[in-house]
């Protein structure tokens, strides 16, 4: 299979601050047989306008991350599919190197992530956390932290088929928390042929504590949905990263504790809301 088509699916919602950097990194790839599908949840800013400038396919949907990724997958025509986020920037050789690995027999790839130009304290915490995560190299979808993003189409299609059977549409369409983990967890059941693509992604991290709070509070509010249908996965994800004697591991633990506080607040908030509705 020479130069297979790679479909890149990018969910967006009010992503104008980062989407240009993301799409520009795709435009500059050394590998050219690419289609880009932006799945937008009716952004209120210039997200769609930016996507239109790059002449990508745009799908408008009512739904959160997991639903957006699933619908993008339904439109994808590639033999290989990359699930990218709008705040991620690809190394200009990432797709080319990833395709070579998959053609050698891997079914999915974990893309090594580094922090993009950290400046603030919060961004530096993420920088050291990501270094620690990739030092561990734990590929297990339940207890590890690394998550696959690049898949052979058939493996991803099988994973989404199982997810659709397990999750009601109303749950799947509002789910934000652990969306990548769920996909990787189901794909892992089909294949263990996974590898790490080094130096692949640069992640634009939250700038300050307010941004971090907003992000992980939102994640916490959807964890109840995940825990009902994937209890084993959630039990594994609630545990902190593995700790060793390195400074990176202790910084990683500190960031995990900070994120957990606001994650739990989100979890408590939705639990209280549901109890009042009952």
CATH class reads: Alpha Beta
Residues in helix, %: 40-55%
Sheet with most strands: 8 strands, mixed
| Uncertain ranges | none
Shape: globular
Q: What is the CATH superfamily?
A: Spore Coat Polysaccharide Biosynthesis Protein SpsA, Chain A
Examine the secondary-structure arrangement and name the CATH architecture.
Answer: Alpha-Beta Complex
Number of beta strands: 8
Radius of gyration: 18 Å
What is the string of SSEs from the N terminus onward? EHEHEHEEHEHEHHHEHHHH
What count of domains describes the coordinates?
Answer: 1
Q: Calculate the terminal CA-CA distance, rounded to whole Å.
A: 55 Å
Question: Biggest sheet: strands side by side, in what order?
Answer: 3-2-1-4-7-6-8-5
Oligomer: single chain
* Class of secondary structure makeup: alpha/beta
What's the overall average pLDDT, rounded? 93
What portion of the residues fall into strands of 2 or more residues?
Answer: 15-25%
What is the tally of helical segments? Answer: 12
Q: Indicate the CATH topology.
A: Spore Coat Polysaccharide Biosynthesis Protein SpsA, Chain A
Question: What would you say about this model in short?
Answer:
The protein has twelve helices and eight strands.
Topology summary:
Blueprint: E1 6-12, H1 19-27, E2 34-40, H2 47-53, E3 57-60, H3 65-75, E4 80-83, E5 88-90, H4 94-103, E6 108-115, H5 121-136, E7 148-152, H6 153-166, H7 169-172, H8 179-190, E8 194-203, H9 209-220, H10 223-229, H11 231-237, H12 247-277
Parallel strand pairs: 1-2, 1-4, 2-3, 6-8
Antiparallel strand pairs: 4-7, 5-8, 6-7
